[in-house]
């Protein structure tokens, strides 16, 4: 079984569509008569249900028939699910797998307030009946508040003669100034998360302002190190509503992505104040309104009163910079990876890169390519897979050339609950490692310590659990294996000297530049930086998996009313911005309580 459950069609299962239709009819009938026990009987005893707002107005994973019944008992009387129908555009498929064949099918349904989609995998139970192994239910639109697209698109003009008529550009300019009108939502940060969420909210008719401290949209990527290219493939990285063109490269260079962000903001008519610092704010619990201040690029200060503030500065917000004795005496250069822009002036210099995840490896490779003598400091261990073997192994069948439409791929990908994904990815990680054996052996011989995750589940679970700890190899591993980049393993810097560092193991190294690829602090600390302890202390930590196996706090209630976290890679920004936008819209329309 591969990471994405890409497997051949199983012709040994006759008429999978009929089987899926009968299952859905029985499951739907039980739900419509509020027979939650009967509905739960349509799951395997060890079945999984992941809900993205449809039944719970939250992101929840439920495991096991008994707990599924309990959650249905809480949600079915409130949401009244009905009209479960197989998707005519997606015929049910039978899939062969050594661990057990299954049937998979898309379906649609309604609740009192929303229209939703689902995706189910059915397996034959011991009694011969087909039951749900995994099921996802995901909100697609709120009734009466549908997105302005297709036959609902705006007219764009008001034909006829109208005295004092203003054109589209004039209207956009006035709208973007929010004077005297106030935005309902202020988003801090116009990276992929902020842009995706603003686009979703715009389509839902929620007045939204993006505040970006950089001079240009996309500078959060544009200003990063010179050689940066995305490690994820193009099919995984689209933004909402506007896919990359068909000629777009598989792996996107940072400056190309930055320019696309500018185009995207313009095409989606997003209100963005660039060169603007979010300087602080406070929340009035009685009125449910924020008072926030921003400093604009013209020197003016504006006070705004939104009902929602979204922190979209990303997981790469506040740099994690270790305090190391003697740093003030060091005569060379110390910089965090987020400040590093390139190694063009490093020829002949001795460089130490602290940290062995994606940024650390990329920077070490760039420094080497520019003629520096590079050592990479690995304090513990790192999961490494090659792009050549790892990307097809993890994304194949879902995010690939000729794969499903992105909205279908997103639902398929999200339909595997993260605790279940860990076991599936253990097999994929092992298969990738077999193909990468020569590379991994070379790393070990060079003194580099390799791991495969705490349970052998590799990249994705490391990303979900801690936001790092891995490297997708695009060249640095060969440099390490060949000795072009030296490894210092199993220690850390104890203190600086004027011309170098002394490690905790007592050894010394003369260096001219130290790059700290030491990651970033929890996003909760970004909230503390912008809004102080009064807000941050009411929030929960961001990222990592909760007891159910869902990501903590991001894209869902933060613990503080009217305050949200938006983060994640391009794929997550595209997909999960939908559910955060729905929650904000529902609160705006009084369909969901603020607390």
TrEMBL record:
GO molecular function, one term: monooxygenase activity
Pfam families to which the protein is assigned, alphabetical: Pyr_redox_3
Keyword tags: Oxidoreductase
Domain of life according to the entry: Bacteria
EC number assigned by the record: 1.14.13.-
Name assigned to this protein: NAD(P)/FAD-dependent oxidoreductase
Organism (species): Rhodococcus opacus
